[in-house]
Design brief:
Layout lengths: L3 H16 L6 H14 L29 E7 L4 E7 L4 E5 L5 E8 L1 E9 L16 E12 L5 E3 L7 E6 L3 E8 L12 E4 L4 E3 L2 E9 L6 E4 L7
Parallel strand pairs: 1-13
Antiparallel strand pairs: 1-2, 2-9, 3-8, 4-7, 4-9, 5-6, 5-8, 6-12, 10-12, 11-12
Helix pairs in contact: 1-2
This protein binds fe (ii) ion.
GO biological process, one term: detection of hypoxia
Family: Belongs to the cysteine dioxygenase family.
Catalytic activity: L-cysteine + O2 = 3-sulfino-L-alanine + H(+)
């Protein structure tokens, strides 16, 4: 399968995404995204995005910490399409996606994903923010995914909106984000450190997340696909 077809579909679906900014028909967007997810994302393969496992971005320089390579394919005001290539043991630290929906599909190797969602509707007697700025979050995912795994989808309020990627082996994750990060519209990327699990209840596990400065760097380059967005 070629990447061209899913990109064409994204061009179509982004119209629905724009419309869905009105809350009354938000479910239409969900349907459109889900259709893309089912039809295309789960069947994408590494070669569909022009990569192969022998590329140097999957080999860590012994002198450095293993560094992630960011490949930017395409972006419109409502969607962006990119991939992250990891040498073994490379990590993208815990970060958020404010107001965004993100599809993540592993195309190569094995990846540990740990994700959380902010606790926003808790028992009114419970403290969800600490004086030091820490916020309570509920663990969503703590598992290893590989190229046979279904696409992971996170949403603004659930699905694991804050996540950390750790490469168990050299791996690739394809990300489709909508809308893209845009600090001037309130969608900046923040990084967090998580505490040990503070509570294990009948309904899940919780941790305190503290915002931390970004301390990691990625290699990056654009890869243009000849398609009208
Ligand atoms: Fe992310």
């Amino acid at each position: 399968m070629s990447l061209r077809r899913p990109l064409q579909d994204l061009c179509h679906y982004q119209v629905m995404w724009n419309i869905s900014l009105g809350p009354s028909i938000a479910c239409d967007t969900t349907n459109a995204i889900y259709k893309f997810n089912l039809v295309h994302a789960d069947s994408l393969m590494l070669q569909d995005i022009g990569l192969d496992a022998s590329m140097s971005c999957f080999t860590a320089n012994p002198q450095d910490n293993p560094k992630v390579t960011y490949i930017h394919f395409a972006e419109s005001p409502t969607l962006s399409f990119c991939a992250f290539c990891f040498p073994q043991s490379a990590v993208i630290p815990l970060h958020d996606h404010p107001g965004m929906t993100v599809f993540s599909k592993i195309l190569l190797g094995s990846m540990h994903i740990k994700s959380y969602d902010w606790v926003t509707t808790f028992d009114s007697n419970e403290v969800t923010r600490m004086p030091n700025g820490a916020r309570l979050a509920k663990l969503n995912t703590d598992a290893i995914f590989d190229a046979t795994s279904k696409t992971v989808v996170l949403y603004p309020e659930d699905g694991g909106n804050l996540h950390c990627f750790s490469a168990v082996s050299p791996c690739v994750v394809l990300d489709v984000m909508g809308p893209p990060y845009r600090p001037e519209e309130g969608r900046d990327c923040s990084y967090y450190a998580d505490s040990e699990v503070v509570r294990v209840g009948g309904d899940g596990q919780y941790a305190w997340l503290n915002k931390v400065p970004r301390t990691f760097e990625m290699n990056g380059f654009p890869m243009h696909i000849n398609i009208r967005m």
